[in-house]
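<tokenise_the_fold>
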Amino acid sequence: MNGGSEDRMDEGRERILSVRGLTVGFGGPTVLENLDLDVYRGEILGFVGGSGTGKSVLMRTVLRLNARQAGSISIFGRDFDGLSYADRLAVDTRVGVLFQQGALFSGLTVLENVQVPMREYLDLPTAMMDDLARLKIELVGLRPEAAERYPSELSGGMIKRAALARAGA
């Protein structure tokens, strides 16, 4: 894909993610072979399948956590492989990930967990990060006092909400 507008649009819809010919394996049997996938702006997509069928492998490969043997992946109309470091960083700041079990850092409070992407990608004053994190926490329906709690002090539902707040940050 060349990343041109014709590659990003399909019948007037903006293609956010495009996967073409994706093949992934780990030295043994191939997990994904020649997979094509498009996700459009505003679309909500779920992956359903039995254990070991490649759902997590697909997501980890799209996030560049797994190497692929073949295929291309474009995000926001841009082939990630051809981007400069600065452009890759710009794409990364537009992507949030909500892990199945929350994946909160146990040694950090909810507030600090929500601030992780801000600290990684932005150069903001601490007070502004505190305010933004508290806003994200409120937006997911957690009470303000949850900001100072550690993951071990949260219910399962609260962990999911805290992880959603972090993904939104």
Notes: Residues 1-7 have pLDDT under 50 and may be disordered. Residues 126-139 form the longest helix (14 residues).
